[in-house]
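Work Package 4 report. The design task specified in the project plan requires that, given a folded chain encoded as structure tokens, an amino acid be chosen for each position. We show below one input record used in the internal validation round.
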């Protein structure tokens, strides 16, 4: 089961991916998470990527394609995987297709989580994450019991550097310009499965489950 999760920043791809990992037992591969882990470890890749991430721009295609190529060859991906935040450009999608063809593999479904644009800014700027366990919150829609602290482990909550209003604006524009064309790309390959991304998290999870079976 090889799945792509497509959707604008703030559509809930990461949240749904984590729930799908539990249901289907396949790993979530998030290029954003991999880049942030590199940044935290201060690797040359992370330091280079930060310049792009902080301004809401895309990291160059060859960098993320290289990351994905080595990641999907790891043992835990043998039974399938979920790509979250990759591909983000047509060039990335074409490179993915080429590498999978060489591995006699392919993508089974592209889950496209649809959320109207005017909903996204508020969702993104209100996001908070636990520094310790990674649990996600939202200051308005899903606040922790004690402000700034994780309900699960008491860890400190932080806001992603790129979730401020200016950077979010750029990320949404970059999505419209460079990633939205992938909707047509996968529609033409009959792989696109549109999902209404409005409503309760569990409800949306149910819609995805219905499509994936
Ligand atoms: P995300 O966590 O998916 O929202 O990604 C955060 C940031 O990481 C993006 O704004 C980009 O700067 C970078 N990034 C993540 N995935 C990709 C990708 N597939 N192509 C280019 N840049 C990416």
């Amino acid at each position: 089961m090889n799945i792509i999760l497509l959707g604008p920043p703030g559509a809930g791809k990461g949240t749904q991916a984590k729930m799908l990992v539990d249901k289907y037992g396949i790993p979530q591969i998030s290029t954003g998470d991999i880049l942030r882990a590199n940044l935290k470890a201060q690797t040359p890749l992370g330091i280079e990527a930060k310049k792009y991430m902080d301004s809401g721009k895309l990291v160059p295609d060859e960098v993320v394609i290289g990351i994905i190529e080595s990641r999907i060859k790891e043992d835990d991906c043998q039974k399938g995987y979920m790509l979250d935040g990759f591909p983000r450009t047509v060039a990335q999608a074409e490179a993915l297709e080429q590498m999978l063809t060489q591995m006699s593999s392919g993508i089974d479904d592209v889950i496209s989580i649809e959320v109207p644009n005017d909903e996204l800014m508020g969702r993104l700027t209100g996001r908070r994450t636990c520094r310790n366990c990674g649990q996600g919150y939202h200051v308005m829609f899903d606040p922790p019991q004690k402000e700034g602290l994780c309900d699960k482990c008491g860890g400190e909550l932080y806001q992603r550097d790129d979730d401020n209003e200016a950077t979010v604006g750029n990320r949404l524009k970059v999505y419209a310009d460079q990633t939205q064309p992938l909707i047509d790309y996968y529609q033409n390959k009959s792989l696109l499965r549109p999902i209404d991304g409005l409503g309760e998290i569990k409800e949306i999870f149910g819609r995805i489950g219905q499509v994936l079976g």
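The pocket of adenosine monophosphate is lined by residues 9, 31-32, 35, 52-53, 56-59, 64, 85-86, 88, 92, 162, 171 (CB under 6 Å). Validation will be extended to a larger panel in the next phase.
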